[in-house]
Structure formats: C-alpha cells, structure tokens
Design goal:
This protein is α/β, with parallel strands linked by helices. Helices cover about 30% and strands about 20% of the residues. Strand 2 and strand 3 form a beta hairpin. Helix 7 packs antiparallel against helix 8 and helix 8 packs antiparallel against helix 9. It is elongated and about 90 Å long. The N and C termini lie far apart (about 100 Å).
C-alpha cells in the first residue's frame, strides 16, 4: 500500500488520501487530520543556491506540527526540482507552482492555501533557528494572540569569507512586556525593518480583517503595508527580543539589495499612510511621530541609493506627494531642525521648479578646485564662472568634468568617478580616470596625433552625457585630456549647445 497525502479545502481540517491497492479499483477516501499549529509559507523565485538550507532549517524545527507551503513563483533555474524532491520525501511539504507574479502574489497564494492556526513566513534565501516557531507559538497564549513577533540577525555570507550574524538593533527601544500589548502602548514597534518573516500571524485574524499583500511585480516592498496593517489591526501583540531568524544580506539578486525604482519607497510609504488613515489610530500623535520618521528615512534612502543624479525629477515629485500627506504640526513639534528643514525643503514647490532650470556641463582638464591651484587662469576662470552662476541663477544644475589628470596605477581601464568639490551638492564634479590622452598639452608634444581620434574617450564622454543629460550646454574650456573627435558628439546631442573657448592669459 502506498499512501500520499494531499491538501484539502483551505478552511477545513481535511486531507484527501489515495490508497493504492494491489487489486483494482483505485479507492479515494477522505481522512480527517488535526489542524497544524503553523502554516509556514516559503515564496520561491530562482533560489536554487539557497533553498536547501532554508528548507532544512524549517524541517528541523522543534515544533513539528507545521505544514510547509512552498510557492514556486515561476522560477527559471533549478528551484522547482529541488522543491519536488523535498515534497516527495516529507509529507509536511506542499508545492504551489504558479507563473511569476511577484512576492505579493506568491504570498497571497500561500496564505489562501494555508490551513494552520497561525501563518509564518520564511523567505527562500534565509534560514531560521531550530526553536523559532516553537518559541513564538508558546507565547501565543494557546493560540489567542494576533501577532507574535521576534527579532532577527542580519546575516552576511560573502564569498570566501567566514559568515557573520549581527543582531538587528532597530527595535531596541521597544518595551519588553510580560503580556500581550496593543500598538498604542508600544509605538516603537512601527520602526525598523518590516521583517514580516520574523513573526507568526493568527490566521483567523488575517481572514477577519482581510489582510493580504499588495500584488506588485518583483519584490515591490509589499512587506511594508502588510507590516503596518497587521500592527495597527492586531488587538494583541507579543514582542520577542531574542533573534530567531537569519536575514541574508548578501544575496545580490534579492529585491531588497537591488533597488532601482526611485519612486517605489515613496509609493509604499504612501500605502503605509493610507493604512494608518483608514485605521482608528490616524490621530494618535505617537503613532504619527514614528510613522513620519519612517517617511523621512525613506527619502534619505532614496537620495543615497536610487541615483538621485539621474532621478531627481521623480524623487522630488514623489517626495512632495508623500510629504503633502504628512501633518506639518507633528513635524514642527516633534522633530529636530534638520528634519524640519528636510521636510519643508521637499514639500516646497521650489524643488520642482529647480528641476526645470538649465543643466550645464563645464569641461577643463583638471578639477576647478584642485588643492595645488594648478591650471593657471583657466582654473580661476572656471571657479569664478561657477560662483557667478550659483549667485545669479542658483537653481542651475552645474556639472563639471575633467580628464587627463587622474590616473590609477592598479588598472588600465578608463572610467569616470564622482569627486567632491568646494561647493558641495550644488555642483556635481566628475573626472575621467586613465585617459588615453594625457594633460596638460605639453605631454602631447611627442605624439600630438594621438589626440585626434580616440574612441575610448569619445565613448566615455558619450556615456556620461547620456547618463547625466540632457544638458542645455557643454562648455569646453580646452580640449586637453580629450581627443578632438569628442566634439563630433554634437551630432548625437543636437539639443545641446557645444561651446569651445580659447583662453589667452
């Protein structure tokens, strides 16, 4: 006799069991099984490198009364065969195989199939402590607490290095109580990483309040509104400061490690605000204070991580939209002057007006503010020109490029890097490193023809203008450090004025 257990209807403690007898006919009978304590949902997408460690950690739980729902979200690598092998060997493992729809869709599919008293989440490139689910469930007061949330490790496992697990300290200010609490008693819970996977959620609570994930393509930061909704709607929460979950920080393909959509943090933060506004706590000052701090954090993250140089229009626009939904009185009453300034700056229409002013690129063979004051009168001229523009047209976006001056001995590759300058973020200064045409001009006397045509330099300038344009004008104060054919780029950028100055000093 061969018995294989399969999932039954979502909200019933039923399993259909096929019993294959040596003789025909094949019989199908319905067997009643106890409801598992926890349904563990594992959304999977192209994680063949990590999924075995993840599943092994879940199957090794000291709490054995669990079901493990693996949602294969259209993986194109070897993830699905690995999942099938585990399903064959362990009756607690079930697979949902679906076309790719993103993290939110995968989680909703898993929750719809879940049958446990609680729902837990383990992301497929992470792993967990053997006692995680037993620890969390034992704090649920016989399955009555809505949310039991634990802490986690930030786990680093770079290639060829010893792995490192650091306790996350973002919720150190959360009050540790020996009883369940409500979010109004412990508002610091709303700070820190959403870490929706570090807790368990009473399934009847999720169903009653119709809590689900936003279905956005890719990761989409959809854990943010889910986190806010569960925290605000839960009547009882338990916080466990002990770390029980290992959150991998070194998976380069993870959506959390490759944020390319500059507006996504703002969209999800507006989702958080919408959840708050639709709750009964939209006027709770302490909750607003922590929530608004998160909004400011997302803005600063976007400025540093979402290529503000190329996405300033979108970031300025969405920051203004986000901050227009924030109550100014709370910011002015509860935040320091720096935070107030940031809030008012991006809420101001001047930020959007600034984006409409000209963008100009100034070229000289060495930085205009080099510490040696090299470059004679041209360097003085460039510095004075920039100072005048900033005084008379403060919203003009000024870029400065140099070439032929900077070299790196450990590589022969020609590349462009950003360098600091005396005007701070009012001017964006870059330099071409390892230019095939050296500067100043006297270095070309042995072979002046080398500066006529150089595709490497031409392509470097082309890529720079493509990445940082559209420029209203490019002002070449000389051609030293470049090849003359760079001027031919005018044909590729017809909307940009090319100005070449001959200085006599």
């Amino acid at each position: 006799m061969k018995i294989k257990t399969r999932k039954g209807e979502n909200n019933q403690c039923l399993r259909k069991t096929q019993i294959r007898l040596a003789e025909k006919p094949r019989l199908t009978v319905t067997v009643r099984r106890p409801q598992p304590k926890i349904s563990v949902i594992i959304p999977c997408y192209n994680v063949e490198k990590y999924i075995k460690q993840c599943l092994d950690s879940v199957l090794s739980q000291t709490l054995t009364d669990i079901e493990i729902i693996c949602v294969n979200d259209g993986s194109a690598d070897g993830t699905l065969p690995i999942l099938k092998a585990y399903e064959t060997l362990n009756e607690r493992v079930f697979i949902i195989d679906k076309p790719n729809g993103g993290y939110g869709a995968a989680m909703n599919a898993g929750m719809a199939a879940a049958n446990g008293k609680y729902v837990g989440i383990v992301e497929s490139d992470d792993f967990i402590d053997p006692q995680m689910f037993e620890t969390l469930y034992n704090l649920s007061q016989n399955g009555t607490v809505d949310v039991v949330k634990g802490n986690f490790y930030d786990y680093y496992a770079p290639a060829n290095k010893v792995p490192r697990a650091d306790i996350n300290h973002e919720r150190d200010r959360v009050i540790v109580l020996d009883r369940p609490f409500h979010i109004t008693e412990n508002t610091e819970m709303l700070w820190g990483h959403p870490s929706v996977w570090s807790g368990i959620y009473r399934r009847a609570f999720l169903v009653e309040h119709n809590v689900s994930f936003i279905e956005a393509k890719s990761g989409g930061w959809v854990d943010n509104p889910f986190f806010f909704e569960t925290m605000l709607k839960a009547k009882s929460i338990v916080w466990v400061p002990a770390p029980l979950y290992y959150y991998r920080k070194t998976n380069e393909s993870s959506s959390s490690n490759k944020q390319s959509n500059a507006i996504l943090p703002f969209v999800r933060m507006m989702d958080n605000l919408s959840v708050l506004e639709n709750s009964e706590y939209g006027n709770e000052t302490d909750i607003l204070r922590v929530t608004y701090a998160r909004a400011l954090m997302y803005l600063r993250g976007a400025l540093f991580e979402c290529d503000y140089e190329n996405n300033f229009n979108a970031i300025n626009e969405y920051a203004a939209k986000l901050f227009s939904n924030i109550r100014e009185a709370v910011i002015l009453q509860h935040y320091n002057l720096n935070d107030q300034h940031t809030f008012l700056e991006y809420l101001s229409p001047l930020k959007s007006i600034q984006a409409k002013f000209p963008r100009i690129l100034i070229y000289n063979w060495l930085p205009f503010d080099n510490m040696w004051n090299w470059g004679g009168g041209v360097t003085v001229y460039c510095k004075s020109l920039i100072d005048t523009i900033l005084t008379e047209n403060p919203f003009t976006q000024i870029y400065f490029l140099s070439s032929g001056f900077a070299y790196k001995s450990t590589t022969t590759e020609t590349f462009i890097r950003k360098i600091p300058n005396i005007f701070g973020d009012k001017v964006h200064q870059f330099e071409i490193v390892n230019s095939p045409v050296p500067a100043e001009q006297r270095y070309m006397f042995v072979n002046p023809l080398a500066a006529l045509n150089n595709e490497t330099l031409k392509d470097a300038v082309r890529q720079f203008m493509t990445a940082h344009g559209i420029f209203s004008a490019v002002h070449f104060n000389n051609i030293e450090g470049l090849s003359i054919d760079v001027l031919d780029l005018k044909k590729e950028f017809p909307q940009t004025e090319f100005i070449f100055s001959i200085h006599n000093y």
